[in-house]
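[audit] Reproducing an earlier prediction to check determinism. Same input, same settings, fresh worker. If the tokens differ from the archived copy the diff job will pick it up downstream; this log only records the rerun itself.
[audit] input (395 residues):
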Amino acid sequence: MQGSAAPSIRRGRNVSESGSIGVLAKAVLACIMYLLSGPALIILNKRLLTVIGFPYPMFLASLGLGASFSIMLVLCQLGVASPSVRPSAHFYLTRVVPIGLGQAVTFKFGMQAYIHLSVAFIQMMKSVTPATTMAGLAIIGKMPDSSTEVLTVLLICLGTMIAAYGEVESHSLCNGPCSPCHAMSASHLCRLQQCPPRRPSQPLRSTLSDCSVGPRRPQVHLTMIGLFCIVMAECAECLKLILTQVLMTDQKFTIVDAVLYITPAGFFWLQLGSCIYEYPEMHETGAFQRITTELPIFMACSLLGFAVNTAGFCVIQTTGAVTLKVLGTARNAGLIVFCWVFLGETITGLEGFGYIGALTAFSYYSKLQLDKKRVEASSDNAKVDAEPDSQTGPA
């Protein structure tokens, strides 16, 4: 009897090992997908916001959420995917709807901040988002695994903060439009989620000229209204990420559940905000007709939005909300360094120091995350090996 039990134990260990490897592979693939699809979406949205002349970021962001829900709903109807939970109305209103509201508040106050604050100050504030997210998770009892992990996140934030000021200093010295690499970086005005809103009486040409500045001294000015806006945007984003991680980990939401239930809430609030702040001008300027003429680009943005949202939920589920924000920071830094090394992009010494420091800290942070996943896999395997011999029966 005992001899026949050995193959059973080995099979259990093999299943556990393959499952642990699958979780690690899922985390790595999700991070790669997020890193690749994000910049592609930023490029297309920047083209729509500036070149094509569709400066309505809340409406554009809602397209990706709406497409994510629609695609997942079709997959569920076809039997390709299926939700694992069916939340009650009370649960949905109290746990899921606030996530969508947080996303809309982040967009609105983030855009409003650009009217009252300098780009340098805003990006310095946004660079600490990974740290504030980690602090928020610690408040609800989800402490970091080690002080080394906390230190690496703080170093990433510090490097990005230094680079943000260095990058604005670089833009202040140029007399023409910013390069494509800088246009996708963290501190550019035409960033996907943080484009400054155009007033109805302000011509589009005037708005676009804001992205092509002449020589000026870099400034980091501060107003109380602007400070309130950026703090509200940061708090809303942290709250959204924390609530999402709670759903994905504590409530055991799967990727299908997250896309099927969370994205409609975000779509609702963003469309509501767009109806209030963007629809009147869209109607006046004939922006809806522009959607039909540029339909392929809008469809591509919607599909990329599905990829970004799915990958983002997967990253939160497998590694956490802090890693999601760290990935976004590292993605911008990596793009600038790539353009500097391979495309001859000119950056200041302060900017290069900040980005290289952030990437170095990110590399170590990634190593810590992989080591943590390996330890979890080893722990799962040890549990299988230590199982009592209840399956083997008496000798």
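[audit] rerun output stored. Observation attached for the diff report: The mean pLDDT is 76.
[audit] end
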